[in-house]
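1st attempt posting a full record on here, be nice pls
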Amino acid sequence: MSTPTIGLFLHNHTIATDPATATAVAERAEALGYDSLWAGEHVVVPSPRVAPSPLDPDEPMLDPIVLLAHLAARTRRIRLGTGVIVLPQRNPLVLAKQLASLDVLSGGRLEVGIGAGYLEPELTAIGVPMAERGTRTDEYLAAMRTLWESDAPAFDGTHVRFSGVDAHPRPVQRPLPVVVGGHAPAALRRAARHAQGWYGFMLSPEDTAAHVTALRKASADTGRDDPPHVSVTPNRRLDPATVAAYAEAGADRLVVALSPTAALDGLHRILDANAPSALRT
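the predicted structure (as tokens):
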């Protein structure tokens, strides 16, 4: 059992909408030894707010690719993760170009977190039927991988078709690592079949262990002997004993969520308290 690395979930609504604050947090996280920065996505949210929307309609939220490109220019080592892009509401060819560009500009530091989405008003507004989000996610990911990896990209699917086209530059990383987010069995199967990693959000050690067990079973069912890397945002404060509990549950990385309303000095205190050196036993 190895000690999990520590990443940082940037609330790219509120905190990170101030570029100076976002830069200060990213630079301090890199200096303290955090391994990654993560930014989520909602293109639109329902107004007025209805469950299960995580945001009030007037809360600002930056596009994760734009934010991470900004932070890529101000960091050198720390990895950059989309946590997560709602894949079925994106054009896969345009998104493939954006992500390849970010991987190139960051020197090969990108982790592509994707999910099928859960917020029906958002998907409907963008023109994606809720019932199609899973099949679109799988097809879009396959189409993007073709553009990233094939010598002669072509794809013939239900929702995406192209041939006789190409896109350069290719990503620096081969393969470009994909992380699937989501707690449903379909998300775990998707990670087992198609991804290098899986991301669970706001989980306890007990919930983490249950999801890891299911993920390993899904991986074995596909004939895979290297289950996806496991990233988890904990639902509680961290201390060395709690980190050990998540490690025992199977987490490879813990992605600490900052308070979305803290001032910069408060954010620095959170960063210091959760730094890898502060959580070693």
